[in-house]
Specification:
Blueprint (H helix, E strand, L loop, with lengths): L3 H11 L3 H19 L15 E3 H10 L8 E6 L5 H11 L7 E9 L6 E10 L2 E11 L8 E4 L15 E4 L2 H14 L6 H10 L5 H15 L8 H7 L22 H11 L8 H8 L7 H16 L5
Parallel strand pairs: 2-5
Antiparallel strand pairs: 1-2, 3-4, 4-5, 6-7
Helix pairs in contact: 1-2, 5-6, 5-7, 6-9, 7-10, 7-11
């Protein structure tokens, strides 16, 4: 049960609208439900559910906490298509309500080829409000880096939740940074959410070599013809006029993204190392659509996983 007073107090302290606060708390309950039904995160026997947590909600809940932007969806990865969307829908039906909240799919969609992506609009309802969020499952290749435990950062409303914070399982943070770089490159002229997330990452210490290598590997696996990932061109696009800043309205503290020029300058400065590719990384980037050099990819993948295993998390 989400108490009305809890929603109002959280909204006031976070400087956001009550509807966003309500959705943030509802997402926490949805993650708890997916964990309890064995689909996501660490299970009682020590194993892990088949779905991997990633995306903006993962960043806020497991890395940035209250300093992160609010997110309005749950992004998940799965290595292959196996009817997981049906499992999620069954979980919503079997746990109706889940600690006082009901969840149900109001609309479902698949990508054009019906194999790569599933997306559903989830409607939720409790005694003091209703809302919706998107739930997306990407059926793709295995991650570049080994997935890892994700621990939810403490929030003031957690003490009022009637279940323990689940230990989730998802993409390595270095892979999340690489995904944000490629998403920002892919959505040139689109939402400012990705560049804002890179701005948040720019304030944290991380291994630049590992980020650059992961970005090159993920560009190769994405095999995207347009826009191709070219580090120098990418950095040149990080400019205020190239993004829809209104998409951040209500998702970050009021007026926090007003200085867009400084925000973009900080991203370009912090991620300037992306242009410092070595010969192997450059060869891989040149091959990101043709895929002639799979042996090179496999070699760099092994080297990168070894580097990640010996690198402190950001």
């Amino acid at each position: 049960m989400i108490a009305r007073q809890l929603i109002r107090r959280y909204a006031l302290n976070q400087k956001i609208d009550p509807e966003v606060a309500d959705q943030e708390i509802a997402l926490h309950y949805a993650l708890g439900l997916l964990n309890e039904t064995g689909l996501l995160g660490q299970l009682p026997d020590g194993s892990f559910g088949p779905l991997l947590f990633k995306g903006g909600t993962a960043l806020r809940k497991c890395w940035f906490g209250s300093s992160g932007r609010f997110s309005q969806d749950i992004d998940l990865d799965a290595p292959h298509r196996n009817g997981f969307e049906a499992g999620v829908e069954a979980a919503f039906i079997d746990h109706n309500p889940f600690h006082g909240i009901t969840f149900k799919f109001a609309k479902i969609r698949w990508s054009d080829n019906n194999t790569e992506n599933f997306s559903g609009t989830v409607h939720y309802e409790h005694e003091h409000g209703t809302g919706r969020f998107e739930l997306q499952i990407s059926y793709r290749l295995q991650p570049v880096l080994q997935p890892r435990d994700l621990y939810i950062v403490d929030q003031e409303y957690h003490s009022r939740v009637k279940f323990a914070r689940p230990v989730l399982f998802g993409l390595d943070p270095y892979e999340m940074i690489g995904e944000k770089i490629l998403a920002c490159n892919r959505r040139q002229g689109g939402s400012a959410k990705d560049v804002y997330d890179l701005y948040l990452w720019s304030g944290k210490p991380f291994n630049s070599q590992l980020v650059r290598r992961v970005a090159a590997l993920k560009a190769w696996t994405d095999q995207r013809h347009a826009p191709r990932f070219d580090p120098e061109n990418f950095l040149n696009t990080i400019s205020p006029q190239n993004f829809r800043w209104e998409d951040l309205n209500g998702l970050v503290p009021r007026n926090q993204h007003d200085n867009r020029t400084n925000l973009c300058d900080q991203v370009r400065a912090r991620f300037a190392f992306l242009t410092e590719v070595n010969d192997e990384e450059q060869q891989l980037l040149e091959d990101q659509t043709a895929h002639r050099y799979r042996n090179l990819y496999e070699q760099l993948l092994t080297d990168t996983q070894t580097l990640a295993a010996n690198t402190i998390q950001p």
